[in-house]
Design a protein that fits this description.
single chain, mainly alpha, Arc Repressor Mutant, subunit A, three-stranded antiparallel β-sheet, HTH_HxlR
Length: 142
């Protein structure tokens, strides 16, 4: 198996117990598996793919159509990474033309629940964030 660009051949563990948890400790170590996973699942394309696959099985072309601005290459890369991480399943049907469906795995579904909580928080606080942005912009541009 080839290693993904930017990952090390033998990733070190950086798990901590709650008592030892220090917020930035995982973020400073490039070889940290937690950091690598967070980098993957928190990027905008992965978030959109995971959100769209909630209780849906979609074809590549359907995903591409629904994700505004994503290139075919980026969608392919994102789906491969999510499949490698066990978050998305890929089913190929032996028909002509080939048919490939993507769906969330059970692990991916648990991540979707977490993402939905983040979206809900964002919706609940978007007006407060807009006010804070306005205040900041006025202060910085004054």
């Amino acid at each position: 198996m080839t290693m993904e660009e930017g990952t090390l051949n033998s990733p070190s563990r950086c798990e901590l117990t709650e008592e030892d948890y220090e917020a930035f400790q995982w973020d400073t170590r490039e070889d940290c598996e937690v950091r690598q996973i967070l980098d993957r699942v928190a990027d905008k394309w992965s978030l959109l793919v995971i959100a769209l696959l909630d209780r849906n099985t979609l074809r590549f072309t359907e995903l591409k159509y629904k994700i505004d601005g994503i290139s075919q290459r980026m969608l392919t890369t994102t789906l491969r990474h999510l499949e490698r991480d066990g978050l998305v399943s890929r089913t190929v049907y032996p028909v002509v033309p080939p048919r490939v469906d993507y769906a969330l795995t059970p692990l991916g579904m648990t991540l979707h629940q977490t993402i939905q909580s983040l979206v809900t928080w964002t919706e609940d606080h978007q007006s407060e964030i807009a006010v804070a942005r306005d205040q900041y912009d006025k202060r910085v541009n004054a």
